[in-house]
Structures are given as C-alpha cells and as structure tokens.
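Input.
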Amino acid sequence: MHFTASRPDIVRSVRHRWLLNYWQRLRGSRVAPLWGALDVDELARMVDNMQFCDVVDDSGRMRFVVRFCGARIVQAYGECNDQYFDEKLPPLLRDQVLAIYRHTAQTGQPVFTVCRVPDRDGTPVDFERLLLPFARDGVNVDRILAMLEWVSVEGGFQSRELLRSQAQAPVYSVCATIEGIVADAVTL
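Output.
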C-alpha cells in the first residue's frame, strides 16, 4: 500500500478530529503517547467505535492481538477480543488492513484511511479508519487505538457484518500518514 503524507485536516469526522487532537495532547514531546495516560472517561462516548490492539513480535513477525472491540466493530467484523487480528480478518481484507496497522506501528504516526464498500443491499458506505500509536515507554509503539466510522450519503445502510461480507477487496480513496498535527478547537 502507498501512504501519502497529509495534514490533519484530511480527517473528516468531528469525533476523529477530536481523538486526533487528544492523542497529540497526550503525546507531548514523546515519540508516542503513553498508553497509561488515556482517560477512559474522555473516551466513553466513542468506545462503541473503538478497538485496542497490542503490537506483538511473533518469531520476528509483527502481529496484533485485539484486546478490545466496541459494539459497532463487533457488529461489522464479528467478535474478536483476545484474538490475533490476522486470524479474524476476512481474507479479502487481511493484507490491506494489516499493512495499515504495520505502517502505524513502524512510523509511530497516526494513519487515516477511507474506502468505499457496499452493504448487503448494495448501498455504498464510506468506511473511515483512524489509527493512533501508543507506547508503554513513550518510544516503542506497542499498542494501537483504532476508531472506525461508517457513513453513507444515501442515508441508512446495513452495518451488520459489513466488513465480513465483501465480495472484493476495497479500494482506498485515502491512505494517509498524518503529519504536522496542531491542536484545533474541535470539541464534542
């Protein structure tokens, strides 16, 4: 996958923008924010759209163990807590999604992606993903917080198993490493 360098304003969702700014505040002068600095109360209203993964070394291979999946993510992917993400992802999505997670872990930078997928009825749905790297030591990325959102310009759509029922690999319209983050006045 090819990642472009983009400014934070590429992120469309108000909730994604807020989370990106929150990540930046937590990071301070570190390479990556401390995982322990997260305030669960601050994230409570968005938790249904969140996923937390540990980045682990499995015999020299980077893998991701899902530690938490919010209700909307479970609805789209299926239950995945305490499982290797690569074993849970549908084959059509696996390589692309893992490349995005690996890129986040390797660069220590936020990554934002958008792809369009059809729901079960053929309604086009924009699937937006924001990945944020964290580190227990502030330097070595060992955890990723993902926030996923689905939107359709046509209104209602079927989100149940949205990402498990695809007939072909999605095409990404945005695949960006976010650089030059400056806090703005986004509030929730």
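The longest strand covers residues 124-134.
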